[in-house]
Amino acid sequence: MTTPTVRGSDPAQTIANTPDDADDAPRPHVVVIGAGFTGLSAAWELARRGARVTVLEADPEVGGLAGTFEVQGERLEKFYHHWFTNDEHVNDLVKELGVSDRVVYRPTRTGMYFANTVFRMSSPVDVLKFTPLRFTDRLRLGILALRARAVKDWKPLEALTAEEWLIRLGGREVFRVVWEPLLHGKFGPFASSISAVWFWNKLKLRGGSRDKTGAEMLAYYRGGFAALADSLAEEVTRLGGAIYTNRRATGLCVHDGAVTGVETPSGTVAADAVLATTSLPIFADLVGPHTDDQYVESLKAVDYLANVCLVLELDRSLSSTYWLNVNDPGFPFVGVIEHTNFEPASTYGGRHIIYLSKYLPEDADLFRMSDDEVLDYCVPYLERMFPEFRRSWILAAHVWRARFSQPIVTRHYSRMIPREDTPVSGLHLTTMAQVYPEDRGTNYAIREGRRVGVRLAEQLLGAAQRDGAGATATV
Ligand SMILES: Cc1cc2nc3c(=O)[nH]c(=O)nc-3n(C[C@H](O)[C@H](O)[C@H](O)COP(=O)(O)OP(=O)(O)OC[C@H]3O[C@@H](n4cnc5c(N)ncnc54)[C@H](O)[C@@H]3O)c2cc1C
Q1: Which residues of the chain fall short of a pLDDT of 50?
Q2: Looking at ligand 1, which residue's alpha carbon is closest to its atom 19?
């Protein structure tokens, strides 16, 4: 299936018309804004605990940043996606939904493009063979990875930038060759202010997703990540919840300091509680008219980068590497990800799938180019990187853009994270900008969504039982 089941009456009507409301004792109604993994996980926990749930999603499909499109009848992520073997919250979820058989674990080959050459970087032995560094620096690079993974208490790292910490651990030359281009490629103007905590997390996660030989193993969901989002959405609707796609929340209704509903272009949805899972700038616009400027400013203090992914369907493979870090500041993208070196090309009718990814400020030229311009801009770089590559190999090209794709984690980020309970009673906020010290990812979206769903259900249903009516309860 490509779209989730949508149940329930139109949310523009009053919630008293939802099918579940036939019960004698009305149950509290929670509106969740956003049907990414955070929103769906929260809705699932709320629905299975007896709350009435309506999810409003602006996009035509559920899945959020992990959403998909079709290639040869098969769903493929708009933005490359995999899990790490240590992503425990995803594993728990797929087990509970009874869909573990769709998760596949596979070894992946990682590489680094540096000085016009592709170096393999999949295992500790590859690091020792990385000739752009002197042998002593290769050892330092290997030891750096081990030392980073040994860090258990991240709090002292809060005061350091990634640059300061990486130089301290591995020296200037390792930083110059390996880390600096990656930091600049990924974070552009923010590179020098990125927190050591963010980088520590990346090293820890990626370094922990390995088999006994030290080779990297990653996980994928057959049918694409959105197929898992669909399973969650189906569970929500089976439990009586309603999910509306193409339904953007445009405002909030607040009375006497408590949220009472969500405005959409087709009317207002009444609510006892609202959980927003959108990016902070979108939430700031929704909540702005109902709170003071200081709160709105605190939401806007977290910067985000946008992302552009050019997805190419090729008639043949580009290389044998799955994940190629581009450590060349002259190149406009930070990664070349050959997805079909992970999930076989046969899944996509024999087509080989390449992602070219670039994080960038939303006012950057590349973000504003038309799809054809993005393709024309990127192809010459691909030709330089892979001299045998010909444009005629491209069978189809797709360009996907996400405005709020990566929160910028700077020093002392813990002081910037907004609280889950907002100044408006009954209005809650759970987003990927709050998973710190972890970085955004579906694993943490699921963890946080489930946690807040349980918490709100306990508060609301407890209140409903105590009061004997949930319709006016707020938390
Ligand atoms: C390029 C890229 C690569 C990634 N790779 C991986 C990976 O390999 N593995 C991994 O686990 N994670 C990866 N991620 C991250 C992962 O996709 C996200 O962390 C995760 O999906 C976040 O889920 P979420 O529900 O918190 O947010 P989102 O997915 O952003 O969901 C928020 C939802 O809210 C909706 N929305 C926004 N405004 C409104 C409104 N006003 N009304 C109604 N709905 C609204 C949006 O349309 C969206 O569906 C990647 C992300 C990017 C950008």
Answers
A1: 1-9, 12-19, 22, 465-475
A2: 441
User: Which residues have any ligand 1 atom within 6 Å of their CB?
Assistant: 33-39, 56-59, 64-66, 79-83, 248-249, 277-278, 282, 307, 309, 357, 402, 405, 431-432, 440-443, 445
Cβ neighbours of residue 331 under 8 Å, at least 6 residues apart? 113, 185, 381, 385
Q: In the numeric block, which tokens belong to residue 209? A: 């997703």
Helix (H, G, I), strand (E, B) or coil at 308: strand
Distance of alpha carbon 130 from alpha carbon 29, whole angstroms: 57
Sheet containing strand 242-244, strands side by side = 242-244, 52-56, 29-33, 273-276, 427-429
Nearest to 413, CA basis, from 298, 316, 317, 309: 298
CB 273 within 8 A of CB 461: no
Return d(Cα 397, Cα 354) in angstroms, integer.
Answer: 10
Q: For position 23, what pLDDT does the model report? A: 52
Rg (C-alpha) for the chain, rounded Å, is: 23
Q: How far apart are CA 53 and CA 239, in angstroms?
A: 9
Tell me the CA distances in angstroms from 49 to 92, 196, 204, one per residue in order. 18, 39, 35
Torsion angles phi and psi, residue 367, rounded to 5: -70, -25
Residue 90 backbone dihedrals phi, psi, to 5 degrees: -65, -45
Q: Which atom of ligand 1 is nearest to the CA of 40?
A: 25
| pLDDT for the residue numbered 472 | 29
Q: CA angle, 440 as apex, 439 and 446 as ends, to 5°?
A: 120
Structure tokens at 213: 């030989």
How far is the centre of ligand 1, averaged over its atoms, from the C-alpha of 259 (Å)? 25
- The encoded tokens of residue 66 equal 């992990």
Rounded CA-CA distance 229/236 in Å is 11
